[in-house]
């Protein structure tokens, strides 16, 4: 696949999108709405942050269609699972599923695992259930679920984009091991998160 945008520009843009303060329109406003609370939520936990970056990185290692299909699967399933969390419908082993996702996604990146698109989508969709449910369960009572969900959905897309940008920048060059090393680092951080 030919990328018309310079890789370095895409990566720089992706990094800038990671800075939540740049996403606020007014200085000093803080997180005052459900949308902004949701937008900031994935940036507040290392487990969510790593998993969402990892989905983007892993997608960038696969086929052209996977670059958009795998992250969109994650976002779609995550929003559905968030609705379950908001509605109070229980999903077992949410925290364990989130932590295992970080570990597994790191391993998949480290070994440059390639599966058929459907299999890859099922893998990320399964773990998106845990991430989405946790987001939905953690919604503050004073804000609306829809605006909150839109906020963390956008934040997830941004994090996937950063991961994709990183993967594209380093996969399509002679520095392929950098991407795999990122997978190793994510795996090690996943182990760290798993240890009480």
Task: Describe the SSE topology.
Layout (H helix, E strand, L loop, with lengths): L6 H11 L16 H7 L5 H16 L4 H21 L7 H17 L6 H21 L7 H27 L4 H19 L2
Helix pairs in contact: 1-7, 2-7, 3-4, 3-5, 3-7, 3-8, 4-6, 4-7, 5-6, 5-8, 7-8
Q: Nutshell version of this structure?
A:
This protein is 71% helix and 0% strand. The protein is built from 8 helices and no strands.
Task: Report what the structure shows.
- With 196 residues, the protein is mostly helical.
- It has one domain (34-194).
- The chain has eight helices and no strands.
- Helix 4 (66-86) packs parallel to helix 6 and helix 7 crosses helix 8.
- It is globular and about 50 Å long.
Distance between the termini: 43 Å
Radius of gyration: 16 Å
- Mean pLDDT figure: 82
Helix/strand class? mainly alpha
> How many individual domains?
1
Please count the beta strands (DSSP E, at least 2 residues each): 0
Q: Which descriptor suits the 3D outline?
A: globular
Helix content: over 70%
Low-confidence runs (pLDDT<50, min 5 residues)?
1-5, 8-32
Describe the main β-sheet briefly.
none
